[in-house]
Specification:
This protein has about 425 residues and is α/β, with parallel strands linked by helices. The chain has 14 helices and 20 strands. The chain has three domains: about 70 residues, no CATH class; about 210 residues, Mur-like, catalytic domain (UDP-N-acetylmuramoyl-L-alanine:D-glutamate ligase); about 130 residues, Mur ligase, C-terminal domain (Protein-Tyrosine Phosphatase, Chain A, Alpha-Beta Complex). About 40% of the residues are buried.
């Protein structure tokens, strides 16, 4: 929301906003543009009839007093995704959907377009190098690129966000059941992607990963008049800790070394390549740009690197993403000891019935550790988990902790500076010191 506020301010809109609490980096960013609220908290008197539109964040509840005042005055109320569409309804919208890989694929597309000085609007779920904000608007661009989150829109609208972006070019990177607190069955979750495909217009395209069995099955069984473009894992080799693309793929006359790694990221790259082709960039232009892509914050992000060790942080939360991330690091350094630590943080991951989906996701790691916070369960008002339940869910050889300091001490027993250490969480390991 604060990224959107800044983007609209920079476009020339008069923007105000409220929240009950504002944290960094939003606090400093809003202050920089003089749009930080003077006081925190909900103040219905700030909602007046001269306001053109209200944009409602997911954090605001149905009984929010400012929302009630806006409804009383009959003001136009948009959800975040509705307003993203409002700003871009006359542009070609590329929407990246999927249970995992959305942020990286979106970031790859933005990187390539930016490299070739193409103008675009955008929404991405991570801070990117060269981009001040995670939302951007332009008065003159013809293209918009959105990361298409399948989570709910707002307290007033329980549709998935990516349905409201009305994609012209859709991408599905992978499907694995997630957000079980709002999608109670896999069939219900799957239907959201089916609708995403069916809503693409006949002159549009759906770009999809046929290497993912659920995605392939969905596209095989879904009737659509739009163009279907399938992609899979390209050829590659691993040499001296780098992924290498063959000259036959890049048409460059020589193999190409890339800065990112992992089979899943190579698949993300192919999705991005097809999307960029839809806005006029050829294969040579794409690979010229993608070789300088360094990744995104908290997505296989390097915290520390030495000649003998790599410490990485990743946003992994869904079982499929967890397994892909561990396997990627193993692919990169097949002979180096791999220590993997994961924090259960989301509603789905902390649900006892969902734990079996994590079975063997850490199997490629040599040392396997999982953390869950009892405080997090209490805060989410969820039933308490037992250490034995979590251990059984993940499978043999996984050590489970409920105390961050005990986890850190355990990791330090094995990390000597000559191993790879992979730290995976959509949170912050309950505030654990991540320096090793």
């Amino acid at each position: 929301m604060h990224n959107m506020a800044i983007a609209l301010h920079k476009k020339g809109y008069q923007v105000t906003g409220t929240d009950d609490e504002i944290y960094e980096p939003a606090l400093s960013r809003l202050h920089k543009y003089s749009i930080l609220p003077k006081e925190f908290g909900w103040k219905p008197e700030l909602i007046t009839s001269d306001i053109d539109a209200i944009i409602l964040g997911m954090h605001a509840r149905k009984d929010n007093p400012e929302l009630a005042r806006a409804q009383e005055l009959g003001l136009k109320i948009y959800s975040f995704p509705e307003y993203m569409y409002e700003q871009t309804k006359d542009k070609l919208r590329i929407v990246v959907g999927g249970s995992h890989g959305k942020t990286t694929t979106t970031a790859m597309i933005l990187h390539v377009l930016n490299y070739h000085h193409l103008e675009f609007d955008y929404l991405v779920g991570s801070q990117l190098a060269g981009f001040e904000t995670m939302v951007g608007f332009s008065n003159t661009s013809k293209i918009a690129v959105f990361e298409g989150d399948e989570y709910l829109t707002s307290a007033l609208d329980l549709r998935p966000k990516f349905h409201l972006y009305h994609a012209n070019i859709g991408i599905i990177t992978g499907i694995a059941w997630d957000h079980i607190n709002v999608f109670p069955t896999f069939e219900n979750y799957l239907w959201q992607f089916k609708k995403f495909v069916q809503d693409i217009p006949t002159d549009g395209s759906i770009i999809y990963c046929e290497a993912d069995p659920e995605v392939k099955k969905l596209l095989d069984q879904t009737e659509t008049a739009c163009e279907k473009i399938a992609y899979t894992t390209p050829e590659f080799s691993v040499q001296n800790g780098h992924f290498i693309l063959p000259s036959s793929l890049t048409e460059s006359g020589a193999p190409l070394t890339i800065s990112f790694f992992g089979t899943h990221n190579l698949q993300n790259m192919m999705a991005a390549k097809h999307a960029c082709a839809k806005v006029g960039l050829n294969q040579a232009q794409f690979f010229e740009a993608i070789q300088s892509f360094k990744g995104t914050a908290k997505r296989l992000e390097t915290i520390k690197e030495t000649a003998d060790s790599l410490i990485l942080r990743d946003f992994a939360h869904a079982p499929s993403k967890l397994k892909a991330t561990v396997n990627a690091v193993r692919q990169l350094y097949p002979n180096r000891t791999l220590i993997a630590a994961y924090e259960l943080h989301t509603y789905s991951s902390l649900n006892k019935d969902f734990l079996p989906h994590y079975k063997d996701t850490l199997v490629e790691a040599d040392i396997k550790a999982v953390l869950f916070s009892k405080h997090a369960l209490e805060a989410k008002k969820m039933p308490m988990l037992e250490v034995t339940e979590v251990a059984a869910g993940f499978g043999e050889g996984v050590k489970v902790f409920t105390d961050k300091n005990e986890l850190r001490n355990y990791l330090k027993q094995f990390y000597t500076g000559k191993e790879n250490l992979l730290l995976m969480s959509s949170g912050n390991f309950d505030g654990m010191n991540l320096e090793f």
